[in-house]
Specification:
Elements: E1 2-3, E2 24-28, H1 35-48, E3 52-57, E4 62-66, E5 72-73, E6 80-83, E7 87-93, H2 94-98
Parallel strand pairs: 2-3
Antiparallel strand pairs: 1-2, 3-4, 4-5, 6-7
C-alpha cells in the first residue's frame, strides 16, 4: 500500500506513472518474502524519498517501522502505530493491522 498526502496529488500527471515517491509505504510480508529482498526494497524506497515504511509480518505477528534517518521501531502487540508527521493524527492498534478482518 502507498499513501500520498493530498497536497502532493497535483504532482501526479493524468498519464503515465507518477514521478514521486509516496509519503508512506506499507509492505505486508508473505511467507515467500526473503529478508534481504525486503530490506533492499526499503532502501530503494527511502532513497527515492519515502518518509515512513511500515512492514507488517502477519505470520510472526510483528511490525517494523522504518524511517529515512535509519531509525527502526519494533512496536509490541499492544502498541499503536501512528502516522507521525507523515499522517498526523492517524493511529491504529497493531493487532488491527495483523489480524485479518474476514
Amino acid at each position: 500500500m502507498a499513501f500520498v498526502r493530498a497536497e502532493r496529488l497535483t504532482e501526479i500527471s493524468r498519464r503515465g506513472y507518477p514521478r514521486l515517491a509516496p509519503d508512506l509505504v506499507v509492505e505486508v510480508l508473505s511467507p515467500d518474502d526473503r529478508p534481504g529482498d525486503v530490506l533492499a526494497k526499503i532502501g530503494q524506497w527511502m532513497e527515492s524519498g519515502v518518509r515512513l515504511v511500515w512492514v507488517l509480518d502477519p505470520d510472526a505477528e510483528k511490525v517494523r517501522v522504518h524511517r529515512p534517518d535509519g531509525s527502526l521501531d519494533l512496536p509490541g502487540a499492544t502498541d499503536e502505530l501512528d502516522g507521525e508527521d507523515v499522517l498526523p493524527g492517524f493511529r491504529c492498534p497493531v493487532p488491527d493491522l495483523l489480524t485479518p478482518g474476514w
